[in-house]
Design brief:
Blueprint lengths: L10 E3 L5 H7 L4 E4 L3 H10 L2 E4 L8 H8 L3 E5 L2 H6 L7 E3 L4 H12 L2 H15 L4 H15 L13
Parallel strand pairs: 1-2, 3-4, 4-5
């Protein structure tokens, strides 16, 4: 990505077992280490795109957070990204484990600021329905449907 965009400033937020190896491979990157919630929000707000190469997340909240921050995202078609991203519409997903496709997608997207902005705006719209109040309302609607009697009248007193 930096070969194509020399002014690109990679920022790796958080910490983990690969940090030392990554610091050796990416000497020009900024490594924040662990950050609190306020700092994390500032990192999202100051970013242009979000590159998420995880192959081990079971459900990465960071994908939803990046989408809510209107970032163009590149991720593997797995876990949260597979659930939330419609490829080419509100982010880019590549086949799970296809490192070459992931790199190609990230390199291509970093050179297209209008496109990553469009993807980010669509991503933001996609996650607006993920507010807790909306999720709770959906859950209650499901419970109401399950409690309908044979005559179709909901048994609201049982909820």
């Amino acid at each position: 990505m930096q070969r194509c965009q020399p002014d690109l400033l990679p920022v790796l937020v958080g910490d983990g077992p690969q940090r030392a190896a990554l610091q050796k491979r990416l000497p020009n990157a900024i490594f924040t280490g662990f950050v609190d919630a306020d700092s994390l929000a500032r990192h999202y707000a100051s970013a242009d795109m979000f590159v998420f190469p995880s192959l081990s997340e079971t459900y990465g909240n960071v994908v939803n957070e990046a989408m809510a921050s209107a970032l163009g995202i590149v991720a593997f078609d797995y876990a949260a990204a597979a659930e939330m991203i419609e490829n080419g519409r509100n982010g880019l997903v590549v086949p799970f484990g296809d490192d070459r496709a992931f790199i190609d997608a990230a390199v291509a997207l970093c050179q297209q600021p209008v496109r990553y902005s469009q993807l980010g705006n669509a991503a933001r719209l996609r996650v607006e329905s993920q507010r807790w109040s909306h999720i709770a309302d959906q859950y209650l609607d499901i419970l109401r449907q399950l409690l309908e009697t044979a005559d179709g009248k909901p048994q609201l007193s049982r909820i």
